[in-house]
Structure formats: C-alpha cells, structure tokens
Amino acid sequence: MRHPRLAVSSLLALTLLVSGASAAPGPGPVPASLSGVLPAPAQAIPDRHTTFPLSRDTAIVAAGASTPVAERLAEAFRPATGFPLPIVPSASGNAITLVLADTGLGDEGYRLDVRADGIEVRATRPAGLFAGVQTLRQLLPAEIESTTVQKRDWVFPGGQIVDRPRYAYRGAMLDLARHFHEPAEIRRYIDQISRFKINHLHLHLSDDQGWRIRIDSWPRLTDIGGAKGTGVRGIGGGYLTKNDYRALVRYAADRFVTIVPEIDMPGHVNAAQVAYPELTCDGMAPRPRIDIRVGYSSLCAGKEVTYRFAEDVIRELAEMTPGPYLHIGGDEAHSTPHADYLRFVERVLPLVAKYGKTAIGWQEIAQAGAARDAVVQHWNHEWDTGPLVASGAPVLMSPANRTYLDMQYDLLTPGGLHWAGTIEVRAAYDWDPGRLLSGVPEERVFGVEAPLWSETLRDLADIEFLAFPRLVALAELGWSPRATHDWPSFRARLGAYGPRWTRLGVRFYRSPQVRWSS
Ligand code: TNX
Q1: Which of 390, 347, 354 is nearest to 370 (CA)?
Q2: Pairing relation of β-strands 154-163 and 43-54?
Q3: Which of 26, 68, 185, 406 is 20 to 30 A from 3 via CA?
Q4: Taking the CB of residue 90, how many other CB atoms lie within 10 A of it?
Q5: Dihedral sign computed on CA atoms, order 439, 324, 478, 482
Q6: What's the CA gap between 62 and 132, in Å, rounded?
Q7: Mutate to test the pocket of ligand 1, among 175, 331, 419 (most ligand atoms within 8 A of CB)
Q8: CA 3 / ligand 1 centre spacing (Å)
C-alpha cells in the first residue's frame, strides 16, 4: 500500500518539476509543508483546511523535563518573529504545548498536531520532543532562520505527524586531528546536524599529525602533539582542554547529540610517539608528520607501557564522557604485524568495558574475537566483509563510497579526496543500510554515520560545503522508514531547504542534481 505521505510528497515533487519547467531559475519559494520535512517523517497527514498562526500572544507550554526543549524552541523562533514566546506551565489556547507522556513511539518518537487553536508535540522522552521541535522549525518559512525581526505572518500548515527513527544511532564524524577545529566551529556543526535529527557526533581526536584532547597522565600528548603547526602542511594545531571537552559534551547533550570520542590505536599514533618515544618498539622518537600518508605508525604490542598508555587514555576519556561509547580506532594498522594487531585489540577492547563503556572500532577490529562485544564500523566498501559478518557484532554503516563526506562531489570540487570515488548527492542517498552487506541484515545494523576527514579542510566553510547537503541524505537513511525512500521527493525537499542554509550562512554545495529554490 502506498503511504499517504509518499503520495503527497510525490505530488509536491511533480508540482515543483512542472513549475520549474516554466520558470527558468527554479521553483521559487516553496511554502513550508508537512510533506516537505527533512528527514521524511514516518507518517504525515496534512490538513489543508487548517492552519495555526504564530502571534505576539502565543505561549510555549512546558514543565519539568520538557522545559529545556521549550527553551530551544523559543530560541529558534524569537529572533525572526520578535515575539516574546514565554515558556509557561499552562495556557488556554494559542500555544505550542510540549507534552511528556507515553506515546508508544520509543525514546525519540513524537506526535505533532497542528490545529487551528494550537500545536501539540507529544513524546515519551525529551529526546522525542526535541525531534518534534526540529520538525516544527521546518514548518515555518525559511525567513524564520533570520537573526533579525522579519515583518510577515508566521503560519503553520495544519495536520498531524507521527514519527520515529529507523535506527537509534545516526552519526556524523569530525576529524580534529588532521586539522583542529575550534569549539565554536564544533558547536555550530552540532547546531546544523541536530536539525536533521543526527544524534551522535564522533570526534576523531588523535592521529599521526596531532593529538587533540588533554590527557593529564600523559601531558606531552597535547603539549607537543597539540602545539601550533601540528595540522596537515603545518597549518593550525590546537587541542581541547578537559573543560573545553566537557563544555562541548554539555552543549551537544542540550541538543540531544551524544559525543563519541575516538583515540585511534594501534596505528595512526605518530603524534603520540613524537611526544613519548617509549611508545615505539625501539624507543626512538619518530619525526613529526604533517603529510597525509597513512599506515606507517604503530604502537608496540610487545611492550607493557603500551597497555598502561592505552588504559590511562581510556580511563581519562571515559571519566569525562557521559555517553555510552568510546571509539578505539583500529583502522589501517598496516605496519602492525597481524598477530600483534590481534593481541593489541584483544587486550584493549576489554579495557573499554572495564571503564563502563561500549567500544566502537573500525571494521578491522572484527578480526579479533573480542570484537563480538563491540560495535564494528564498516568503512571500506572494497574489503572482504567475512570477518565483520563472522564477528556477530552490531555494524555501524559508513561505507566510504556512500557516506564519506570528504570525498569530492565531482573531480572539480574544491577540497576533498576521491580515493573512494566521487559522491554526488544522489549517490549519497540511493542506498539502503539494511541491505548493503550480505550477511548483515537490518536487525544487525546499529546505525549510520557520515565521517568527515579533515586532510583538506581548514575552516567551518570547508566543513559545511562537504557536509551539506550530503549529510542530510544520511540523516534520512538513518531516520526515515525504508518505505518513504524516494529520490524525487528527497530532491524536491532538499531544493526547498536551500534558502534556509542561505539565511543561516551555511555554505552548502549547490548540486546540479537538485533544483534549488531561490
Ligand atoms: C581512510 S577511513 C582513513 C583515514 C583517512 C581517510 C581519508 C579510515 C578508518 N581511515 O585515516 O583520513 O581514509 O578519506
């Protein structure tokens, strides 16, 4: 049976195509609609006869655990409307009401009703209210993203949305090691990704070039590995203090994003070895590296200091990370002898559990038996997935040829790499995480994640250009039910989102595959 939302959204797509054919520059401003939301809701039933106008007198009703979500909502709507939008415990009509009550829709599911006399968002948990609020933001026109008061009417289209995610883990990864990115840039990235219901931010905190998180018991990691000039080509440098990190974790948590810290081991450790030469097998300090080669450095599996180091790092990271996951890397250990690699992973994975966390590792860790208790992150689409399938572990899907945000859109894209090919928006969208790997059925898919490696990145504009719009494709694959998957619909909704990014100053890639509204 065709889903009602699908029928409506294909109609929208058709309308856009038809109007686009007559008006040369594109479809023009698209009225916000229940069928236009990104990522597509599980179910949306527009009611064309109903609208709810936001006005100077509208209140936000919230109490207890829903109040912080109400604050996010108020922050989103106050600047452009200029309305006070007070947060109050109750109101009679003309309100957006956030209700915490069992909806049977899981932790992140929500129900949204837009009626003539008000809006209700109902969810079992605050995370669901937050997801509902992200949907609500897209129901007002793009001008709502302005930071100054706009003179216009603010009208919500009527109807109902019942929504819940396909996968509990929907992630983005940012590489702080090849180029450090300041907390302000990371906060802004969190703002942008959480709009699309991405709920995990994996931070790649160490690599051959630099070490980006303070570890008190091994201070030279950041004193040396986080110094100026430790980025690729000697650009940048820097690191997160424990306070920076804790503040980021809180900022993310306020937007229902869980930080997943990664320390990459046993390969990708040159910066650590420059700071602590005892971490090499021969005890000799290697030279600092600012090139982008991989696979040459390795911790020494036969030395006890290796495990003291790993345990100290894991313990300190676990202490400052409230989230359940800790990523230990494990990729591209090309200079670690195979037996040593297995020995290292077998010893280090249990340390993550010892400090109360669930380990995540790149797909290579699946070769070790201990990986059965970890989450295995699939990345290299060209490799034999036998060990990954055999491990029985849940699989986080990050196939490089679909999800790597550092791959160029085409060979003319400024910045980015293309070792896994080029990835246009449609290629980022047209695949199914539940059917990608034979031997890894839907039930074993832990979630999806889009990594952004920063060899060629400098600043936030570079990050945003590669992430948007492709990260939205991943967000939809992770959130929306398979039955809603539809490229014409996705493409139309994306095109309609462009003016929001423009207003937000997000430098997104104007893919020629999408008809961007002006
Ligand atoms: C492969 S993906 C890597 C990274 C590079 C990236 C560049 C993975 C687990 N390892 O070290 O930065 O390619 O795309």
Answers
A1: 347
A2: antiparallel
A3: 26
A4: 10
A5: positive
A6: 14
A7: 331
A8: 39
